[in-house]
Design goal:
The protein is α/β, with parallel strands linked by helices. The protein is built from 8 helices and 9 strands. The protein has a single domain, classed as Alpha/Beta hydrolase fold, catalytic domain (Rossmann fold, 3-Layer(aba) Sandwich), CATH 3.40.50. The two termini are 24 Å apart.
């Protein structure tokens, strides 16, 4: 999910962090897209007016910030943490199928609990990762008790999101950084690496699974600080 970190001109060694909600409804879908939601947060929030912004996205949040930052001159850097970095026209499902090895691949009914949601477009459903798969897949490398909490508190992504084409990518004009978990089982490391290289991102490899933002929080924080300092 996306996170916004704002650097203050008068407080150069400190940051103000925002974690705006990610609706998880899609890149261009019904009733409004996640990138549009974040873009409005960035451009309509008086607290951010005229302030440099570093956008950080994890997993699907990488696709969100890729689209949301377009047209916002205050966004100075993009930081991708075990995240999708799509190019224009690409879909998340297509990216995942291009490289074998995702633990969320295969028959969706074997991986997800599929639940209808109110007001959904015809045929769309929410996808919840089956609780039994979370410890060894999404939360691999974390303590079992922590993985159990993540399984119980997960928020669902609309299934239609995987087939929606991404728009113009902000990484073509905004400097990018990427943290890659070399043991990521959700987005195969080979795919993370190729997307990051294509975006000319400054890459930091960490020995971690898909949730390096938890297991290697110090490293991720330093990468964000590096991005802020390099673009200030």
């Amino acid at each position: 999910m996306p996170c916004v970190i704002r650097s203050e001109d008068a407080q150069r060694d400190g940051f103000t962090a925002y974690a705006p909600p990610n609706p998880l409804r899609g890149l261009s879908g019904f009733p409004s897209s996640d990138p549009a939601y974040l873009h409005d947060f960035l451009t309509q929030n008086a607290a951010l007016a005229g302030k440099p912004v570093i956008l950080v996205g994890h997993s699907y949040g990488g696709a969100v910030i890729t689209n949301a930052a377009v047209g916002d001159p205050e966004v100075k850097a993009l930081v991708y943490v075990d995240a999708f970095i799509p190019d224009q026209g690409e879909t998340l499902g297509g990216l995942l199928s291009s490289v074998p090895g995702s633990c969320l691949g295969g028959n969706p009914t074997d991986v997800f609990n599929l639940v209808p949601y109110p007001g959904s477009p015809p045929g769309d459903v929410d996808t919840y990762i089956k609780a039994s798969l979370v410890p060894g897949c999404f939360a691999s490398g974390l303590p079992a008790r922590q993985a159990a909490v993540i399984a119980a508190t997960q928020r669902p992504l609309a299934a239609s999101t995987l087939s929606e084409p991404s728009g113009t990518p902000a990484w073509k004009t905004i400097p990018s950084w990427a943290v890659i978990g070399t043991a990521d089982k959700v987005i195969p490391p080979a795919l993370l690496q190729s997307m990051a290289q294509r975006a000319n991102a400054r890459i930091t490899d960490v020995k971690a699974g898909h949730l390096s933002l938890i297991s290697k929080a110090g490293v991720v924080t330093q990468v964000i600080i590096n991005a802020a300092q390099a673009t200030s």
